[in-house]
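seq as requested:
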Amino acid sequence: MRTIRWGILGTAKIAEGALIPALHRAEGTELVAVASRRPEKAMAYAERNQIEKAYGSYEELLQDARIDAVYIPLPNHLHAQWAIRAMEAGKHVLCEKPAALNQAQAKEMVQAAEECDVVFMEAFMYQFHPQWARVRELVEQGAIGRLQVISASFSFALRNPQDIRWYAEGGGALYDVGCYCVHAIRTFAGDVLPSSVQAVADLDERRVDRTVAAALAFPGGLTAHLDASFTAADRQRVELAGDEGSLVVTWPFRPDKGNPSIVWRNRSDERVERFPVDDMYRLEVEHFGACVRGEETLRQTPDQTLRNMAILDAIYQAVGRDTRVKDA
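struct tokens:
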């Protein structure tokens, strides 16, 4: 098996808490380097996380010929810029969600991946958890009949006013946690765009969404609704309702935070299936490496990323938030 050698752009907490341990555990993977705009920060981060090389700029890491793939956990407004630069340097890119600030920006990323002949994937890690493999299996088997309504919620109280997720550019509950809800809905809606989008939001003085709720209508009669919030208590839930039964998915997006399960109801029965927390980040990394080696096809394709971004655009348009990209 060819080993995929990785670099990380930035010293984000999500990388340190989740993806770096996964990179160390994953088969066929070697974590080579990390970069920060502050050399001393990169060095401390590398030492703390058993990373061989620390670079004092993102450009230096991208020039390292040993590195095959780059993970990008930078702030949302920097994703597209550095993903494209990494691709132009010949690196495969695993980019944190949301991939971009709008669909137009995501299209530039997809085009760069095609032109540079590299693998590009948006990092929706939850879909690699075995809980979701079982949900997909049940829906495809017709366990709940024809799907009629999807409901998705994700919230937590973000109390630090200095957190980057409150920033005017790239901040907001929809970008941070609502994108998971959109992703789950789109997956089971058959990868088609909604024919109608309605939404409301609680926006702060910079028009960053503290809370957002949306109703989506899809061709064929399927409807969906979602809510995401930085002010509501910790909660996450997905329900898929068909004409013969329903599935409630607990801890759907961060199963590592609780006890993931599926509650499956039909006209005469109710069953609860429980799942181990498992290692979804490691599974994501191993899947990406297999795609780089040509052994698997992407679970999250660039086209799916574009559709996800199109729905985020439509929701933000409905609540009156501008998602045009500002000067970096």
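Residues 317 and 323 are 8 Å apart (CA to CA).
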